[in-house]
Amino acid sequence: MDVTQIDTVLPDPPAFRNSAAVPRPGLIEALLAVVGPGGVMVDPEVTVAYSRDMMPLAPSGLPLAVVFPADTGQVAAVVRVCAEHGVPIVPRGAGSGLTGAANGVDGAVTVVLTRMNRILEIDEGNRLAVVQPGVVNLTFRSEVESRGLFYAPDPSSYDWCTLGGNLSTNAGGLCCVKYGVTTDAVLGLQVVLASGEVLRTGRRTVKGVAGYDLTKLIVGSEGTLGIITEATLALRPKPAAPCTLVAAFSDTEHAGEAVSGAIRAGLVPSLLEIMDATCIRAVQEHTGSSILGDGEPPAAILIGQSDSGSTVGRREMDLLEQVCSSAGASFSYVTDDLAEGRLLLQARRAVLPSLEVLGTWLTDDVSVPRTAMAALIAACQEISADVGLTIGVVGHAGDGNMHPTIVYDATDPAQVAAAHDAFGRILDAGRALGGTVTGEHGIGRVKQDFLRSEIGEIGIEVHRAIKRALDPTGMFNPGSMFD
Amino acid sequence: MDVTQIDTVLPDPPAFRNSAAVPRPGLIEALLAVVGPGGVMVDPEVTVAYSRDMMPLAPSGLPLAVVFPADTGQVAAVVRVCAEHGVPIVPRGAGSGLTGAANGVDGAVTVVLTRMNRILEIDEGNRLAVVQPGVVNLTFRSEVESRGLFYAPDPSSYDWCTLGGNLSTNAGGLCCVKYGVTTDAVLGLQVVLASGEVLRTGRRTVKGVAGYDLTKLIVGSEGTLGIITEATLALRPKPAAPCTLVAAFSDTEHAGEAVSGAIRAGLVPSLLEIMDATCIRAVQEHTGSSILGDGEPPAAILIGQSDSGSTVGRREMDLLEQVCSSAGASFSYVTDDLAEGRLLLQARRAVLPSLEVLGTWLTDDVSVPRTAMAALIAACQEISADVGLTIGVVGHAGDGNMHPTIVYDATDPAQVAAAHDAFGRILDAGRALGGTVTGEHGIGRVKQDFLRSEIGEIGIEVHRAIKRALDPTGMFNPGSMFD
Question: What pLDDT does residue A235 have?
């Protein structure tokens, strides 16, 4: 998001032209007074770009205005203006989300945090950083890596998603099997509440248990409780160069047995990914790379890494190779060569772009007990045959978080309906296996019914009570996560 | 807590004899109907044993009754009975807490969870366990270790504290520098709400971000939001045998520099503890052991461990030794000998019993940025001189969580007042250094003013709003954590 580019298409002063909602006299003028003319967009031809994130199935609307505050004071002032005018707010980062949580709402103001993109502090002696929400994940990780430190959460959109969005969705990535999701890296937050007041949560120390854990309540709340304007993040030492394993299986069940075997053997790889035949074939064809083999793809490939360093990393991957062989791997290979390791990771990361060549992709996000991974893949194959759409399964095998990805023709209503059907049936299958309907993407506007099924009426009522407690008028992100 | 022993001192049927509160007609009968005659205690000579935990300074009252439910259904029924009678509830585990959070309240029922002490499941393929709240930490860790697994949180009372208390206080221990506090090991909870309804939070999968993180909101809420009746806990592979370092310093500032240096060097020890001269001398005199040296104690000793295993663990401790030497250590020693390592840990764990010989101990719990550890120790020495009481500093140097321990004569009102004064001044000093007033013990009934200072009025108001949302009549643990 380059704000300066967008500014050039803004009328000056901006005319109120939003047709999708009742005009709110004085609202736009008040917003302009807060953030200045470069920080408010109202032209529907422009604001429509903020209607959606990366989830095609979620409902969306046209923002009444899109506002780009430059600091916490401006965010607080925007919240107060919207509260006075009775206008809801949708907080938004880069728009890389996969649940529609940042989708526009007719008649609401979308507050985009990308202008607040400064790394405020990196404290190497205490291994922490203080950041604004608009910092791009990759920018941040590169900056801390240049100082010998490491920020673990690495969602697949890490080269364009923002830390604020990562916090709001409690994003994960490939690192989670060893390092957890975003919440595990957050020490404290600054949050603008519905009252326009600024709440500080957490601390700058490694440990701290003073009061309720408001930090971890806000993380993953998808912008429904407040707007995150600053975060204090825990850093780790930069891990050692990885040792990498790749193993192929003629049967996904054998791959599942290898993952369970790795857990039982006490391994904690820094990464353990799975790709099924559909994904392997798509990557082979799209990238032309032979790193995953040339001919007919195997049923599944596991890619594992250890960042334990030196002989330990090698020993861990050698042990993983033994586990894979015992589970019936048709091929396996361990390498300390960093370029080879990188190529394998690139192939893994190429799955979505490669599937995109075949049609519109719709990626699901279901997390199952690790022992149930193979059963989930089998269920996806059945669903694929049933609905008549390609479903490639790629995922974080080490923690059981799978991303079955449905490929369909978005111009064909029957295929759209079939994709929608498959999406839900995969979630049901995951739940039936003891899993959850989201491991790292969140609920947003696309999984509300599934959240209700998973946590039940008592759970939903507790959500509503907390929402009412912090946001009594329901101004933040209405219609997202739950009603 | 052996319930059967206590049962024998119960009158049958129990007579209502609590003089400290207004009798509630029918309450005891209703409680007896729920939990049976062996599960209700009302004799003040018996219930007085449930007035206090291990924090001498916290206010306390006499429970109206002490109830021992046997399962979740009984807990829910007890909550409904108390709600009907307008009687508050104090949830309690073993009573090892250090903030008075489980102290009795005049006119309230104390619900003790020690009878619910079963390990319900250990799932080795998914590295998780399901437990009841009354399981003793050591019982649980021994059981999982016998299966090659590891439960990290190890508060110093681990041989008698219960997992339910650990969850309610978000307890820590020596492991935290590498493995975090209790919240980092919790996947899900079963919680009885103020309505008597049973809430399930979280999941059985490694990852899961469905809805608000109610699990981590309940963990550390000190029994103010509900009663935890079951927990799903994440396990780790059993770590390798430790390599141990001990280093002595003639100046605590040098020890502080060694800790900062270790962080900057990228070390993540599995344990890194500090003891000051007062603690070392007390242990030398009380235990008669010469493991910490024989003569005049050094200003500080650091004990470090790595559980990375084989050559890596040794290399990490060798590096830590270099860091200590560069920081000016007067002595240092690295050993792979498990018995030596165990003796050093025993000396560390002997600090509180050794200080107890000198008087009543009052242990504080302040967490500071690691770079500020030496400054905190210096502040404690000043406060000690000022108030005229011995203060020994022992703590988790690796994460900056210090336990300055004040020794005083509890029969001397002047010393009690001085101890109280020192307790607060240590917290203020910690906060002034960028720290928090509790790293792992919690707020309870002894640090409420300090919580308010730390999180401010907006923070307190958010706490109140969440409390009202989940417990509208204020039935759970009134007067604990905040008003």
Answer: 97
Which of A260, A448, A462, A471 is the best mutation test for B, with the most CBs of B within 10 A?
A: A462
Nearest chain A residue to B174 by CA distance is A207
| Cis previous bond, A13, omega within 30 | yes
Chain B closest CA to A176's CA: distance in Å? 8
Q: What local confidence, expressed as pLDDT, does residue A93 receive?
A: 98
Does B458 sit within 8 Å of A216, measured CB to CB? no
Within 8 A by CB and 6+ apart from B279, the residues are: B351, B354, B355, B392, B393, B394, B405
Q: How many CA atoms lie within 13 A of A405 on its CB side?
A: 26
User: How many CB atoms are located within 10 Å of the residue B98 CB?
Assistant: 26
Residue B86 DSSP one-character state:
T
Tokens of B136: 């003793």
Distant-in-sequence, close-in-space partners of B81: CB < 8 Å, separation ≥ 6: B27, B30, B31, B34
User: CB–CB of A412/A296 below 8 Å?
Assistant: no
Sign of CA dihedral B89, B94, B97, B100: positive
Residues B306 and B329: their CA atoms lie apart, in Å, by 19
In this prediction the pTM is 0.94
B440 vs A contacts (CB less than 8 Å) = 207, 209
Residue B439, CA distances (Å) to B161, B300, B430 in order: 18, 21, 11
Which domains are present in chain B?
Answer: 1-238+447-483 (3.30.465.10), 243-432 (3.40.462.10)
Contact (CB, 8 A) for A270 and A305: yes
With CB atoms and an 8 Å threshold, state whether B198 touches A308.
Answer: no
The string of pLDDT tens digits covering residues B118-160 is: 999 999 999 999 999 999 999 999 999 999 999 999 999 999 9
Instruction: Tell whether ipTM is more than 0.90.
Output: yes
Are β-strands A109-112 and A89-92 bridged in parallel, bridged antiparallel, or unpaired? parallel
CB B400 within 8 A of CB B438: no
Residue type, B273: E
Chain A residues with CB-CB distance to B465 below 8 A: 469-470
Res. A444 pLDDT band, cuts 50 70 90: very high
Q: Is the per-residue pLDDT at B291 higher than 50?
A: yes
Compute CA distances B148 → A299, B252, B287, B314, B403, whole Å: 32, 38, 32, 22, 32
**Substitution target from A123, A127, A209, A319 for chain B, most B beta carbons within 10 A:** A209
Rounded Cα gap, residues A167 and A145, in angstroms:
20
Distance CA B114, CA B96 (A): 12
Phi, psi of B90 (to 5 degrees): -110, 115
Q: Is B213 on the interface with A (CB under 8 A)?
A: yes
Residues shown for chain B: 483
**Mean pLDDT rounded to a whole number for chain A:** 93
C-alpha separations of A245 from A241, A322, A350, A401 in Å: 13, 11, 18, 19
Helical spans, DSSP H, in A171-309: 176-179, 214-218, 252-264, 277-287
Q: Are A289 and A403 in contact (CB under 8 A)?
A: no
- Which residue from B minimizes the CA distance to A127? B263
Which residues on A lie below 8 Å from B456 (Cβ)? 200
DSSP element (H, E) containing A464 = helix A448-470
Q: A432 CB contacts (<8 Å, ≥6 apart)?
A: none
Dihedral pair phi/psi, residue B271, rounded to 5°: -165, 135
Q: Which helix (H) or strand (E) holds B190?
A: strand B186-192
Q: Is A457 on the interface with B (CB under 8 A)?
A: no
Widest distance between CA atoms in chain A: 71
Nearest-by-CA chain A residue for B181: A207
Which among B125, B201, B263 has the least Cβ separation from residue A125?
A: B263
